[in-house]
What we know:
Mean pLDDT: 90
Largest sheet: 5 strands, antiparallel, barrel
Strand content: 25-35%
Distance between the termini: 59 Å
Radius of gyration: 21 Å
Number of helices: 5
Shape: globular
Helix content: 10-25%
Number of strands: 9
Structural class: alpha+beta
Low-confidence stretches: none
Amino acid sequence: MSTRSVGLGKWVTAILLGGLILGASGCGYLKNVRDDFMDCFMLGVGGVVPVVPAGEESRAVGFLPPSLGVYVEATEFMHLGAILKASGDLEWDRRGLAALVDTRTKVGLGPLHYVAVRQYTSPSLANAYKVEGNQMDGWRNHMRRLTDPVFRRPAKELIFNTSGGLPFLHRGWQDWEVFSVEVAVPEPFILHSGFNIRAGADPSQMFDFVLGLLCIDLYDDNAYTFWGKLQHPAPAEQQ
């Protein structure tokens, strides 16, 4: 075996050992990198059927499914389209993951827009970022304290559980550069059902992800310390 091969083998071994050590002891770093990567994207898919089954509490949606429209966002300041839907969805919303009921109405033309989103989420069907009353409450409070001086909006918002129209920058000021497309299609003739899909990405969060690889927390949105402890413990966990 050549000296060059031996040298290469040593480098590979060192990298693998370093990765194992980092994975075992620096799990907070890996979780933060994961969250920063997830923040770059949004993806949702779902549908609504003519009867929502729930035993004796089954509810009829009817022959005309609430699933219609196309909506495009090119940052918070450019909207186009209209969409109305109520459905059961699987959602990747930045660092939040959930299976939930999602109702939304969006109407927009240029910078003018009306957005109303309400989500019903079960703790057993969502990660800690999409529901309250868990170890991420401290992180949520920290994000809500980091308000911007112009619109007075929190840094990041992932929970939408109130009715009515949402304020400007409803996702938080850190995510104002989202580019997204939403499509909802009804099929009232045979299945009496509706189907929807949405996808989006945020270029600024992609840059934040790259910085996160270098342990630079530009947005101060890391939930964990390098060694894996919660950076912003909930009050109950501080006792």
